[in-house]
């Protein structure tokens, strides 16, 4: 368990990243707040288009045109990243904060030896001479479990399997001992047995180096096995946030509950899976009120009016447990009264 | 209802696969000589009983997709036989083949490339009936609307083009298209792996409902063991072109006999932090099909490999009643 | 069980959905130059379509003594205006230009249609069936493509124009071509031969393009799906391959249209195309050579429509390419 009276290494407040497309403004990330504590793995979980990847790209300030961070603050090592110049950001990326991606093979340059690519991190950020950088690279490859690292350093990316390529990516990401590692679906493209290897590797390196990790995935199994805390995202916002034990033991938000019911679990065969009706909303034309309301069974069963008019706030609903839902909002009653008052 | 243990001895085999082989060759050099040969499917035999779902799991490159494609002759086999109700479909051609093909359909993994982007989806669904000259235009149309409703879509969707649908909806259309020919056997090739979690369950439920309503038989190919366990009656596990274990679902999950199955099961992340398991982490990567290890193909990664495993491939046989495995540990 | 559906008309209550082609047109409209070009070409086609009604003089109407009249000159006797002046024989240039346009555009259009049909067919067969068929067809295509196109065009058309009966052309085709181009049957033979020469060499690149499309489509899952339903080669090519390859084929055809207008002009200019007195933009341009220094506006008169057509079809092709780009959402 994390001791949360420490200072967070990363604080994200009211982050909004929008994409200005021909068809309208896509609110990919729309008011995201969270903290990340030292040595912690925070899981960001959600379905495609929920904004989890854009959130991580925003932290690295890698959102490209037509996307733009329109609001918010990202505090990291005492600086608001959104107020840094591009040059200051370049010095930050790959050095103090780094990222690994879903497709390791496409993230490596096919025309350079992997040893050179890892060594490059040292020559760029630390100005090490070539020979020394190469030795350090081999050492790193060894650390991430590449067998026969001296020889493999001379290999080209296409000669490596997906699992090995991901190990190389992790080596590059952790080369300069960053404070923050963002792992965007690091195991999704890999086979199950290789996924297990990479998960073990990330956990092991976190222990060794004390890196804080943001783990982005759609797989609740990976979250349960790796994360300390979890934030569930839906349509550009965090809808629930809790420690991993708390979240799986007592999920609050109807979306979280729906997700958990809709995945088949090994060893627990059910006749039918739960279904979240409908599909993810269009981020250009979001539903009024709570963004989950059109698909929310709880709202329909309890015929809650307010959900259709007002988006709930992310409020504390237990110890270290936040939820964005009128069902758990202590103010619901008064807000409901307010609505009625408005009607009169 | 789904009874927990179907005894398959009393049931009819709808599909019998015998010694199925599919080899790929790499040619090179000036004379295009065969340089190396990859056995994507290597002497695989199994039965599928009428009305059951046989799950076929394995990691990428293990040959599971090739098996499905070869069974429908979308890829021509290198050897072996596939019987549908006792007829070897590899010996058929022309009209006889087409008549049997109607009964064997397939649902594809990629919901985006599996529909013709220039065809309204209603046309796509009716296409099979047109090709096989089933019914009048009106009957074809009625059937199309019928299956469209069956998979939870609306009548007016028939006029739309694929680009107007989400991945989950397209997958439903793919199911409707397969269903329109009223097949008895459907190969589901990773039908949910490209879909979001909340959409996966919708599609899985539809597949289960349709099976009940029409008494369909499925071959469900997937890499996700949790999904396979959920939907299958029996499960076959593949590794490098061979089936290493095949048993009833519960039997396989509670009493796995092959070390690969055991490792696979323990590698699946369980969405429950309270469950603490001891994971068997396999060393190394899956070897190349073009250069498979001698002896048992799994031995370089196997925690229990003995001397015998390095030399001789273990026989694939019925170790316990209805439980097949290929491992020297069971001999 | 679902309720029985009464009739196909049931669907007519719902608005028809936007088809991919309609979407393409919507995007095409955003391409300004292409839209202007389309407008220009429509006007040109309309003018040539109503050549008989619009042209003030007959094609070969000669007014004796009125040689080299300046644009805008008025015949004193009749009061008729020579909008663009007259040529060395006193023929009205404006009228000849319109009739020439009819011929030049028809030749280009028919060449495009024929070469596309041949190219698509050969390319589809080659790509779909592969193996030795593919090998044979593509080697033939490559062989002809290695020969520089202008010399071979010149040689073939020179040979054909010398013995115009070398290739038997059915009479009804000649009559049809004559009607299309407002020519007598005897004259039409020349134009048809030029079309055959242009299309005969033009299908090569179309075939290569189509083959490439088919090769990439062959691996698409929907083709596999059709096979799984029992579809044969012809069905798959006609119902899936061709509609899906249509986009690049149309772009290619539009760019080819520009090439054929220029190629026909070049042939006629060099004297190996359609011969005087049949007017085409190319031979009209050729006829101005001798007088270019004294009357520099003369070559501009047939030169401008050639230039306009070439430019317009290139822009239309560009616009179509952008509109059909699969990377944009479709």
TrEMBL record, chain A:
ABC transporter domain ranges (all copies): 12-260
A Pfam family that the UniProt record links to this protein: ABC_tran
GO terms (BP aspect): peptide transport
A GO molecular-function annotation: ATP hydrolysis activity
SMART domains: AAA (SM00382)
Keyword terms: ATP-binding, Cell membrane, Membrane, Nucleotide-binding, Transport
SUPFAM superfamilies referenced in this protein's UniProt entry, alphabetically: P-loop containing nucleoside triphosphate hydrolases
Membrane topology according to the record: Peripheral membrane protein
Localization: Cell membrane
Gene3D superfamilies from the UniProt entry: P-loop containing nucleotide triphosphate hydrolases (3.40.50.300)
GO CC annotations, alphabetized: plasma membrane
Lineage top rank: taxon: Bacteria
Family under the similarity heading: Belongs to the ABC transporter superfamily.
Name used for this protein in its record: Methionine ABC transporter ATP-binding protein
UniProtKB/TrEMBL annotation, chain B:
Keywords: ATP-binding, Nucleotide-binding, Transport
Gene3D superfamilies, per the entry: P-loop containing nucleotide triphosphate hydrolases (3.40.50.300)
Signal peptide start and end residues: none
Single annotated GO MF: ATP binding
A Pfam family of this chain: oligo_HPY
ABC transporter domain sequence ranges: 15-265
CDD domains: ABC_NikE_OppD_transporters (cd03257)
Keyword field contains Transport: yes
Keyword Nucleotide-binding appears in the UniProt entry: yes
Gene Ontology BP, a term: peptide transport
Any coiled-coil regions, as ranges: none
Family the UniProt entry places it in: Belongs to the ABC transporter superfamily.
Name of this protein: Peptide ABC transporter substrate-binding protein
Organism lineage string: Bacteria, Bacillati, Chloroflexota, Anaerolineae, Anaerolineales
From TrEMBL, chain C:
Keyword annotations: Cell membrane, Membrane, Transmembrane, Transmembrane helix, Transport
Stretches assigned to the ABC transmembrane type-1 domain: 101-317
Any one GO biological process: transmembrane transport
Protein topology in the membrane: Multi-pass membrane protein
Any one Gene Ontology cellular component term annotated for this protein: plasma membrane
Gene3D superfamilies xref list: MetI-like
InterPro entries per record: BP-dependent_transpt_permease, MetI-like, MetI-like_sf, OppC_N
Protein name as annotated: ABC transporter permease
